[in-house]
Amino acid sequence: MSDIGGEAARWNFHPGEVRNNPLFDWPPRPGAVLRWYSAYWLVISTTTLSLVVAALGIWLWAPTLVEAADLSWSWVVAIWLGFLIPHTLLAGGLHLWLYRARGQGIERKYDKRGQIANNGTFTFRDQVRDNMFWSLASGITFATFYTCLWFWAAGNGWAATTTFAAQPVWYVIWFAILPAWGSFHFYWVHRALHWPPLYKRAHALHHRNVNVGPWSGISMHPIEHAIYFSSLLIHFVVPTSPMHILFHVYTFTLHPICSHSGFDGLIALGRKRVQLGDFFHQLHHRYFECNYGTVEMPWDRWFGTFHDGSEGATTRTRAFKKQMYTK
């Protein structure tokens, strides 16, 4: 167990020690692994939400691959709206409840400070408007571009596809692999985005948000969006389906809304009902040179940039940052 010590005093709510996915622990701990995956596949989570919304998309608005073979504004706009509307409803709903209505006050809020207004650091001098603009105008646009490109390529036979009927085992396993692939991809592109020239040109826009909110999740510069959503390019190489790529996009758009909400959980009837925030990533926004990846894979632990929420980790991170910027 980490020594949280004085680090807890720096936060309004500190959830305790941050842990990685036990899948990579040695010796193996199968019980812990089962509990870990149950915590987001068998409950209401952004993973199950992404799966449900993707299924609704296939049913209601996504084109068939036969239809997608011919580029048409009708199905391109349908895909764009299919990303825009859920994003706006989830981010807007959480923002209204947690920040405007203050529905649970600061209970389980990591940082007690609110969103910033009348500050020239942000586009429109307002953190929320800044985040909304970059998330919707750039983020949803890039998500739509990559997705439509795949649908068009798959419809013309230029990208490998599969179906549940053809490969039922692979079809199901692919859903479990995609979050791990996303974690792998995110760690390495995120490290690249902290390279000073690229950080200054692109990633600094996302890091305006030291104290994040629901709209901060994919509030990024267009260059960063192009890099971030390049995770979807794997679907051009590995046999996949429309359901898989929609699930992938929703995990990359809806999950960041919750992980950047600033609150550990949603409270209803006096109890935490839904996991929201990601303290692992909240630590990255505050301390900057740590926790580049996600808790799904231990890249930060392997490369010495893991912050587990303890006072000792804060000391190490500050020393690492000072060393980096004095070279």
UniProtKB/TrEMBL annotation:
Q: Where in the cell is it found?
A: Membrane
Protein keywords:
Membrane, Transmembrane, Transmembrane helix
| Sequence intervals crossing the membrane | 39-61, 73-99, 133-153, 169-189
The Fatty acid hydroxylase domain sits at: 179-305
**Annotated source species:** Sulfitobacter sediminis
Q: Which Pfam families match?
A: FA_hydroxylase (PF04116)
Q: Which domain of life is it from?
A: Bacteria
Protein's recorded name: Sterol desaturase family protein
